[in-house]
């Protein structure tokens, strides 16, 4: 209404207000509020600045649920609906993943491993269930193949590697990196993949046997049987790649490094992890485990008898 009055200064304030049936006291109260914003508006303006910072720090990825979670971690307790409203007013929004195209190539002569997971992608502790898959990143030099292993407990990317070729050497190198970075007890870990020829290769299956790792594979042509790995590709391609075609494989590799090792593992909070990042979730687990062990090792005081 004040904008309408400002747009017609030649008519005068009172005639415009009379035509709009608005009391002059109401108009001047609005004018005063514009000059001296109320406490709620000042708080909204300050909060919007913090929201913009959280949103920018995430690379424009976080929507209102994660922004709300980050602010709570920083000691700022506001309602979820208020965050949604302020983000909408500021033109800020998160990014939603989209399902991509699969690249599984099955070897008809290979004997697949049994499905030991049965779509239950949960684990009570780290290094009990790893899921793995391949995907392709477009570059002007040609395709760059990305292989990754994800821990079902924390959803952490345990290891990843890239190559110009989607072969058994790529998935084997990824496995070697994972084994070098984690403590795996023989017989306790399941390695779950699809029916791609890389995962049924003699090289990989032999290495799994030597490491005491149980091989597992889902059914043919069903992404739900490797859903946790497929979900990782949706996240990476939505939040990191975003439809880009990189000039070189080296540039794509650097972008993946900055996202996976610089953001996803250490900083990207997830609702299923209690709005912690994968590394934070694992650190919390190991900290609670250490505390429990200290309690169990604490010597008990002898009971007093009369």
Automatic annotation (TrEMBL):
<dbReference type="InterPro" id="IPR050900">
    <property type="entry name" value="Transposase_IS3/IS150/IS904"/>
</dbReference>
<dbReference type="Pfam" id="PF00665">
    <property type="entry name" value="rve"/>
</dbReference>
<dbReference type="Pfam" id="PF13276">
    <property type="entry name" value="HTH_21"/>
</dbReference>
<dbReference type="InterPro" id="IPR025948">
    <property type="entry name" value="HTH-like_dom"/>
</dbReference>
<feature type="domain" description="Integrase catalytic">
    <location>
        <begin position="122"/>
        <end position="286"/>
    </location>
</feature>
<dbReference type="InterPro" id="IPR048020">
    <property type="entry name" value="Transpos_IS3"/>
</dbReference>
<dbReference type="Pfam" id="PF13333">
    <property type="entry name" value="rve_2"/>
</dbReference>
<dbReference type="GO" id="GO:0003676">
    <property type="term" value="F:nucleic acid binding"/>
</dbReference>
<dbReference type="InterPro" id="IPR001584">
    <property type="entry name" value="Integrase_cat-core"/>
</dbReference>
<dbReference type="InterPro" id="IPR012337">
    <property type="entry name" value="RNaseH-like_sf"/>
</dbReference>
<protein>
    <submittedName>
        <fullName>Integrase catalytic region</fullName>
    </submittedName>
</protein>
<comment type="function">
    <text>Involved in the transposition of the insertion sequence.</text>
</comment>
<dbReference type="InterPro" id="IPR036397">
    <property type="entry name" value="RNaseH_sf"/>
</dbReference>
<dbReference type="GO" id="GO:0015074">
    <property type="term" value="P:DNA integration"/>
</dbReference>
